[in-house]
Design a protein that fits this description.
2 copies of one chain form a homodimer. By secondary structure, chain A is α+β, with helices and mostly antiparallel strands. In chain A, 28% of the residues lie in helices and 29% in strands. In chain A, a hairpin with a 4-residue loop joins β22 and β23 (343-352). Chain A is elongated, with a radius of gyration of 27 Å. At the A-B interface, α3, α4, α7 and α10 of A face α3, α4, α7 and α10 of B.
């Protein structure tokens, strides 16, 4: 079987079309021949289905190792392609106009002859970075769990041992039913929080703001982000001069720009009926409770939220760490992408086994 | 009881000395009176043991809340002090010459009259940063698990709900017994790894370098850091031009300065008889195996290693995340502080319950 390589595409004859496309979903038919993407040819070479490809430019015959060494194909793509094939999927390189995806994966039992897609895959080395734009694109347009219509966007990370970790990316706007009327309170601004000497009971006991110093009758301490939000809503004043500006200023001193990003995400969560509390123990900005009637009857917190700038670059290693920890405590990891106006996207990232 | 505050120290009379120092370890005697650090006075105010302190400068009487609001004491210090008292410890503010420590904690049942120390505590808000120098100082001078002589250095992080998380910091130089003679091999440099077509068996099977593509007879793929180390040791050459420089250059393209830091830590671990493999699934640079005789008989990997620059600033939230994950998989989290010469410190950080 004569298979040629012109530097970007691999071409084989009609026999290859029957053997590889018709029965196993490799490549696509063109003019009676079979055109293979470089990664598809690499897989056929690796399996020994074709012994070599002939380089049209130099004339040499390239076996699997020489073909990989020629850098005709990224080995990261090869490992992802191979892993999905090993799992029983047929898949094709994504069209060039889909900038975020490297592969389109068909549902098990289907192939390029069918119309359905299971996954859109972006493949990356564990050492490379992932742009926020890529994550947004993988998450798709709709606020869905990728129903029947839209394929699940997946980041496939190839680690140094060439194992592949799959992370699904979904839009997931938090929503809840927490809503309590809160009377105004007055507090003192300390270095890193606000102390409310005589808090209205509803503030902590129902709306789950702050934490009493020790027992229920003690002063209530609010975090700076809680205090800034309440002050912004007109529910908290400070003894002495100044209001929300003084609190925000203190927050900025403590943690720079990150404070205002967190404050915007905090406000968006509260507006959506969700209670954000510190996620420190889980390495996140917030853990969230969707439906708080009373602190005596708190459910399990559902989400871990990390707030990042809208142009954030994700490190696959950090994603792996966050997602693994969240899974271990039965929560979902959500990234809030925030710009100066507010949170523009909520992206849930979860481990997936295709 | 008359207690006065001059802006930095709180002073009370001989009655206070008997009640607070002699029986409960607050403050230190001076000229027959009792001198209290601001945080000690805050705790006595909080408990109601003293109703107010009188501000020498303004003349007002400050109750607990007014005293905290006057910023006489950091509330972060107060929360740590209170938490340790609640746990049954006596503790004193650290002397000023100990720049990294805020508190010295006595063993349970002992106090400032005794010579022993259990912990040296550095207290921080979850939002603040921790300098590498502080971590170094907490770890102490010696390569010990803080035996009887040296108190354990502890980072106490106060989260937004004022819960305190304790992280111990120890020096922990990895060491192992992995040592195998490795014959030279030749490989092809791909985009993100090196492929060795005909590897000596010992390379993977005994010394645990790389990973076969699929089954044992397949080519062996080495990560860039493994390949760079082997090439540097004269055990790997590349087909085509160039050697270790080409690999390091590729590594630098992929992940910048971090590559060389990782390479130095990798070399130090191998030199110590320890096998580093990717820690990607745990969000770390490496997981390590101390004693590898054969890959068919691998033990549990003991450490997760994250390599950081020598002047790194630690974010308490990142520490919490790393340490929690490591604990969950029964490994110890170790930070390798590396400069351009190599790794200068190995710091193990672990959750501690005082």
């Amino acid at each position: 079987m004569h298979v040629t390589f012109d530097g970007s595409r691999v071409t084989a004859g009609s026999e290859a079309r029957e053997r590889f496309y018709d029965s196993r979903g490799y490549g696509r038919p063109r003019d009676g021949n079979l055109e293979l993407a470089p990664v598809e040819a690499a897989h056929l070479l690796f399996r020994g289905d074709i012994p070599a490809v002939h380089d049209d430019r130099g004339g040499e015959a390239l076996d699997f190792q020489a073909y990989l060494a020629s850098q005709a194909v990224s080995e990261v793509d090869f490992f992802v392609y191979k892993d999905l094939r090993d799992r029983g999927f047929y898949l094709s390189p994504a069209p060039e106009e889909d900038a975020a995806a490297d592969f389109l994966v068909y549902p098990r039992g289907q192939g390029p002859w069918d119309d359905d897609l299971a996954y859109r895959i972006h493949s990356k080395s564990e050492r490379a970075e992932v742009a926020a734009a890529t994550m947004r694109s993988l998450a798709g347009e709709d606020e869905t769990d990728h129903g029947d219509d839209e394929p699940t966007g997946v980041l496939a990370v190839v680690d140094e041992e060439s194992e592949v970790t799959y992370l699904s990316v979904d839009r997931r706007r938090p929503s809840g039913s927490t809503a309590h009327d809160i009377p105004s309170a007055e507090g003192d601004l300390l270095a890193d929080r606000v102390l409310v000497g005589d808090p209205p009971a509803v503030l902590h006991e129902r709306a789950f703001y702050g934490q009493p110093l020790d027992s229920e009758d003690d002063p209530l301490q609010l975090s700076l982000v809680e205090a800034a939000h309440l002050a912004g809503e007109g529910r908290l004043s400070l003894s002495g001069d100044g209001g929300v500006e003084r609190i925000v200023e203190r927050g900025r001193e403590v943690e720079g720009e990150r404070f205002e990003r967190r404050l915007r995400a905090y406000a968006a969560l509260r507006d959506a009926g969700v209670v954000p509390k510190t996620g420190f123990k889980f390495g996140a900005d917030f853990r969230t409770y969707a439906n708080v009637e009373s602190v005596d009857d708190l459910g399990h917190s559902e989400l871990l939220v990390r707030v990042v700038p809208g142009d954030h670059t994700f490190d696959p290693r950090d994603l792996a760490l966050d997602v693994r920890l969240a899974h271990g405590v039965r929560k979902t990891m959500v990234y809030a992408l925030a710009d100066s106006e507010g949170v523009t996207e909520w992206l849930a990232v979860q481990r997936l086994t295709p």
